[in-house]
Design goal:
With 211 residues, this protein is α+β, with helices and mostly antiparallel strands. Helix content is 53%, strand content 29%. The chain has a five-stranded mixed β-barrel. The radius of gyration is 29 Å and the shape is elongated. The chain crosses the membrane at residues 20-42, 175-199.
Length: 211
Protein backbone atom coordinates (compact mmCIF):
# COMPACT_ATOMS: atom_id res chain seq x y z
CA UNK A 1 0.00 0.00 0.00
CA UNK A 2 2.85 2.38 0.84
CA UNK A 3 4.39 1.79 -2.58
CA UNK A 4 1.01 2.35 -4.29
CA UNK A 5 0.50 5.64 -2.48
CA UNK A 6 4.01 6.77 -3.36
CA UNK A 7 3.30 6.12 -7.01
CA UNK A 8 0.22 8.35 -6.95
CA UNK A 9 1.99 11.26 -5.26
CA UNK A 10 2.56 14.21 -7.57
CA UNK A 11 6.05 15.40 -8.35
CA UNK A 12 7.06 19.00 -7.65
CA UNK A 13 6.57 19.98 -11.31
CA UNK A 14 3.15 18.33 -11.43
CA UNK A 15 2.16 20.02 -8.18
CA UNK A 16 3.13 23.43 -9.60
CA UNK A 17 1.16 22.68 -12.75
CA UNK A 18 -1.93 21.79 -10.71
CA UNK A 19 -1.61 24.96 -8.64
CA UNK A 20 -1.29 27.06 -11.79
CA UNK A 21 -4.40 25.42 -13.26
CA UNK A 22 -6.48 26.03 -10.13
CA UNK A 23 -5.18 29.61 -9.95
CA UNK A 24 -6.30 30.28 -13.53
CA UNK A 25 -9.70 28.70 -12.85
CA UNK A 26 -10.19 30.91 -9.78
CA UNK A 27 -8.99 34.01 -11.65
CA UNK A 28 -11.38 33.33 -14.55
CA UNK A 29 -14.36 32.83 -12.25
CA UNK A 30 -13.58 35.92 -10.16
CA UNK A 31 -13.09 38.01 -13.32
CA UNK A 32 -16.44 36.89 -14.72
CA UNK A 33 -18.14 37.64 -11.42
CA UNK A 34 -16.46 41.01 -10.96
CA UNK A 35 -16.99 42.20 -14.53
CA UNK A 36 -20.56 40.95 -14.49
CA UNK A 37 -21.47 42.84 -11.32
CA UNK A 38 -19.43 46.02 -11.82
CA UNK A 39 -19.37 46.56 -15.57
CA UNK A 40 -21.19 44.10 -17.78
CA UNK A 41 -24.59 44.33 -16.11
CA UNK A 42 -24.69 48.18 -16.17
CA UNK A 43 -23.53 48.12 -19.80
CA UNK A 44 -26.33 45.72 -20.76
CA UNK A 45 -28.83 47.85 -18.85
CA UNK A 46 -27.72 50.87 -20.86
CA UNK A 47 -28.21 48.93 -24.07
CA UNK A 48 -31.54 47.49 -22.97
CA UNK A 49 -34.43 49.24 -24.63
CA UNK A 50 -32.09 51.03 -27.03
CA UNK A 51 -31.43 50.89 -30.72
CA UNK A 52 -30.19 52.84 -33.71
CA UNK A 53 -31.98 55.38 -35.87
CA UNK A 54 -31.32 57.98 -38.56
CA UNK A 55 -30.83 61.48 -37.18
CA UNK A 56 -31.14 64.85 -38.89
CA UNK A 57 -29.88 68.11 -37.40
CA UNK A 58 -32.60 70.59 -36.50
CA UNK A 59 -30.63 73.31 -34.75
CA UNK A 60 -27.10 74.03 -33.54
CA UNK A 61 -26.67 76.67 -30.85
CA UNK A 62 -24.44 77.87 -28.07
CA UNK A 63 -25.99 78.67 -24.70
CA UNK A 64 -24.86 81.63 -22.65
CA UNK A 65 -24.01 79.32 -19.78
CA UNK A 66 -20.42 78.14 -19.33
CA UNK A 67 -19.25 74.99 -17.59
CA UNK A 68 -16.09 74.21 -15.68
CA UNK A 69 -13.51 71.62 -16.72
CA UNK A 70 -10.21 70.52 -15.15
CA UNK A 71 -6.95 70.78 -17.09
CA UNK A 72 -3.56 69.27 -16.27
CA UNK A 73 -0.26 70.99 -17.00
CA UNK A 74 2.09 68.59 -15.22
CA UNK A 75 2.40 66.09 -12.41
CA UNK A 76 1.47 68.59 -9.69
CA UNK A 77 -0.20 71.21 -11.84
CA UNK A 78 -3.98 71.26 -12.18
CA UNK A 79 -6.48 74.01 -12.70
CA UNK A 80 -10.01 74.87 -13.74
CA UNK A 81 -11.10 76.43 -17.00
CA UNK A 82 -14.47 77.05 -18.63
CA UNK A 83 -16.08 76.20 -21.95
CA UNK A 84 -19.36 77.30 -23.61
CA UNK A 85 -22.24 74.87 -23.91
CA UNK A 86 -22.98 73.63 -27.42
CA UNK A 87 -26.34 72.01 -28.09
CA UNK A 88 -27.13 69.99 -31.22
CA UNK A 89 -30.83 69.26 -31.53
CA UNK A 90 -31.81 66.44 -33.89
CA UNK A 91 -34.88 64.63 -35.12
CA UNK A 92 -34.77 60.85 -35.24
CA UNK A 93 -36.50 58.48 -37.64
CA UNK A 94 -38.21 56.89 -34.61
CA UNK A 95 -39.82 60.08 -33.28
CA UNK A 96 -40.79 63.54 -34.47
CA UNK A 97 -39.88 65.12 -31.12
CA UNK A 98 -36.49 66.89 -31.00
CA UNK A 99 -33.70 65.21 -29.05
CA UNK A 100 -30.37 66.45 -27.73
CA UNK A 101 -27.32 64.81 -29.34
CA UNK A 102 -24.34 63.64 -27.26
CA UNK A 103 -20.95 62.21 -28.21
CA UNK A 104 -21.40 59.03 -26.15
CA UNK A 105 -22.66 57.74 -22.78
CA UNK A 106 -19.66 59.13 -20.89
CA UNK A 107 -20.20 62.64 -22.21
CA UNK A 108 -23.92 62.35 -21.44
CA UNK A 109 -23.18 61.43 -17.82
CA UNK A 110 -20.52 64.14 -17.46
CA UNK A 111 -22.67 66.99 -18.81
CA UNK A 112 -26.21 66.04 -19.86
CA UNK A 113 -27.04 69.63 -20.79
CA UNK A 114 -24.49 69.96 -23.62
CA UNK A 115 -23.70 68.02 -26.79
CA UNK A 116 -19.93 68.41 -26.73
CA UNK A 117 -17.16 68.73 -24.12
CA UNK A 118 -13.89 70.01 -25.62
CA UNK A 119 -10.47 68.79 -24.47
CA UNK A 120 -9.92 71.02 -21.45
CA UNK A 121 -7.29 73.67 -22.19
CA UNK A 122 -5.85 76.17 -19.75
CA UNK A 123 -7.06 79.11 -21.82
CA UNK A 124 -10.82 79.71 -21.88
CA UNK A 125 -10.50 81.26 -25.34
CA UNK A 126 -9.01 78.05 -26.73
CA UNK A 127 -11.92 76.08 -25.29
CA UNK A 128 -14.34 78.51 -26.91
CA UNK A 129 -12.59 78.14 -30.27
CA UNK A 130 -12.84 74.34 -30.07
CA UNK A 131 -16.55 74.55 -29.36
CA UNK A 132 -17.06 77.05 -32.21
CA UNK A 133 -15.21 74.72 -34.60
CA UNK A 134 -17.53 71.89 -33.57
CA UNK A 135 -20.51 74.15 -34.09
CA UNK A 136 -19.40 74.97 -37.65
CA UNK A 137 -18.85 71.28 -38.33
CA UNK A 138 -22.45 70.40 -37.47
CA UNK A 139 -23.86 73.41 -39.31
CA UNK A 140 -21.78 73.38 -42.49
CA UNK A 141 -20.36 69.87 -42.99
CA UNK A 142 -23.21 67.78 -41.65
CA UNK A 143 -26.10 70.17 -42.23
CA UNK A 144 -29.24 68.31 -43.21
CA UNK A 145 -27.46 65.04 -44.06
CA UNK A 146 -28.84 62.07 -42.11
CA UNK A 147 -26.47 60.09 -39.90
CA UNK A 148 -26.73 57.10 -37.56
CA UNK A 149 -27.42 57.78 -33.91
CA UNK A 150 -28.30 55.64 -30.88
CA UNK A 151 -31.01 56.04 -28.29
CA UNK A 152 -32.42 54.44 -25.15
CA UNK A 153 -36.12 54.99 -24.66
CA UNK A 154 -36.14 53.66 -21.10
CA UNK A 155 -33.17 55.52 -19.58
CA UNK A 156 -32.87 58.76 -21.64
CA UNK A 157 -35.86 59.24 -23.96
CA UNK A 158 -34.90 62.87 -24.78
CA UNK A 159 -31.24 62.19 -25.64
CA UNK A 160 -29.42 60.38 -28.44
CA UNK A 161 -25.78 59.36 -28.81
CA UNK A 162 -23.46 59.68 -31.77
CA UNK A 163 -21.63 56.51 -30.75
CA UNK A 164 -21.87 53.87 -28.07
CA UNK A 165 -19.24 53.46 -25.38
CA UNK A 166 -20.29 49.85 -24.76
CA UNK A 167 -20.46 48.26 -28.19
CA UNK A 168 -20.69 44.57 -29.06
CA UNK A 169 -16.90 44.18 -29.39
CA UNK A 170 -16.23 45.49 -25.88
CA UNK A 171 -18.94 43.28 -24.43
CA UNK A 172 -17.52 40.27 -26.27
CA UNK A 173 -14.00 40.83 -24.91
CA UNK A 174 -15.44 41.40 -21.44
CA UNK A 175 -16.84 37.86 -21.52
CA UNK A 176 -14.27 36.14 -23.75
CA UNK A 177 -10.96 36.63 -21.90
CA UNK A 178 -12.13 35.51 -18.43
CA UNK A 179 -13.70 32.47 -20.10
CA UNK A 180 -10.45 31.69 -21.94
CA UNK A 181 -8.54 31.99 -18.64
CA UNK A 182 -10.97 29.59 -16.97
CA UNK A 183 -10.77 27.04 -19.82
CA UNK A 184 -6.96 27.15 -19.92
CA UNK A 185 -6.90 26.45 -16.18
CA UNK A 186 -9.27 23.50 -16.60
CA UNK A 187 -7.15 22.19 -19.48
CA UNK A 188 -3.94 22.36 -17.43
CA UNK A 189 -5.52 20.46 -14.52
CA UNK A 190 -7.04 17.80 -16.79
CA UNK A 191 -3.82 17.27 -18.76
CA UNK A 192 -1.78 17.01 -15.55
CA UNK A 193 -4.16 14.41 -14.09
CA UNK A 194 -4.21 12.44 -17.36
CA UNK A 195 -0.42 12.54 -17.65
CA UNK A 196 -0.06 11.30 -14.07
CA UNK A 197 -2.60 8.54 -14.64
CA UNK A 198 -0.80 7.36 -17.78
CA UNK A 199 2.53 7.43 -15.95
CA UNK A 200 1.11 5.32 -13.10
CA UNK A 201 -0.34 2.78 -15.56
CA UNK A 202 2.91 2.59 -17.48
CA UNK A 203 4.81 1.97 -14.22
CA UNK A 204 2.36 -0.73 -13.19
CA UNK A 205 2.67 -2.50 -16.57
CA UNK A 206 6.45 -2.27 -16.35
CA UNK A 207 6.46 -3.90 -12.90
CA UNK A 208 4.18 -6.71 -14.08
CA UNK A 209 6.59 -7.52 -16.90
CA UNK A 210 9.50 -7.77 -14.48
CA UNK A 211 7.61 -10.14 -12.16
Amino acid sequence: MARSRAIYEYTEAEDKSMRLGFLLIAAGLLSLLGLGCCWLRPALQERGGGGSANCTVLAVRQLGERFACTFSCGAACRGTARYPCLQVLVRTSRSSAPALLHEDERQLRTNPKCSYIPPCARDDQENSENVTYKQKYWKEKVGSQPFTCYFNQHLRPDDVMLKRTHDETVLLHCFLWPLVTFLVGVLIVVLTICAKSLAVRAEAIKKKKHL
